[in-house]
Amino acid sequence: MKSFYHDHILPYLVHHVCVHEKFGDERRKVVPRARGVVVEFGMGSGLNLPFYEASEVVSVTGIDPSAQLAQKAAARMGQADFPVRMLTGSAEKLPLEDASVDSVLSTFTLCTIPDLAAALAEARRVLKPDGALIFCEHGLAEDVSVARWQNRLNPIWKPFAGGCHLNRDIPALIRAAGFEITELDSSYMEDTPGIGGYLYRGLARPG
Ligand SMILES: C[S@@+](CC[C@H](N)C(=O)[O-])C[C@H]1O[C@@H](n2cnc3c(N)ncnc32)[C@H](O)[C@@H]1O
Known about the structure:
By secondary structure, this protein is α/β, with parallel strands linked by helices. The chain contains seven helices and seven strands.
C-alpha cells in the first residue's frame, strides 16, 4: 500500500502541486542565477528547466530518486536548449568529481532529502571554490506561533508528503554545512498556508 502510494500517487501529487503558477513565480527569481555546469537536486518533473538562462548554462545534471518523476521530466528535458541528463539517485551521494560544478540548484527539495547534512556536504565537495548553491526552499517560519504548528504537524505531514519536513531551519542547516550565505530573502508565499509556505531564497558560497 505504501509503495503504491509512493510510486503512483505521490509523484502525481508532487507534480500537480509544484506546477502551480505561484511556484513558477518563485522559480523565476532563482533559477536564472544558475551558471556553467549545473547540478540540480531533486529535479522532479523538470519544472525548473524552462527557467534557466540557456546562454549561461553549459549543462544541467539532475539527481532524483524518483524514476516516476523523471518520466514526467522527459518532455521538458527534450525542449531545453542545453544538455540535460537526469541521474536516478540521491543528493547524499553525487557521482561527480570534487570541484567540478559551478552551480548547485535546489528548489523545494532540501525539505525532503533524508540526510540533508550529507547532501549539503556533497554540494560543497562538488562545487568549485567560486561556485554557488542557489536555493528556494520552504522551512521553519520565523513567527513563533507558525513554527509551533509546524513542529506539531510535522510528524503527521511527513509520511504523506514523501518525507517533506515542514520545520527545517534552512539557513541554519546550510551554514552548518560550512557554506557562507551571501544573499538571503524570506517571506510567505501568497495564498499558501503559513506552515508550508515560509520561503527562503538565496545564494551560498562553499567558502
Ligand atoms: C517537492 S519535490 C520538488 C521537485 C522540484 N525540485 C521542483 O522544484 O519542482 C521534492 C523532490 O525531492 C526529491 N528527493 C527526495 N529525496 C531526495 C534525495 N535524497 N536526493 C535528491 N532528491 C530527492 C523528490 O523525489 C522530489 O522530486
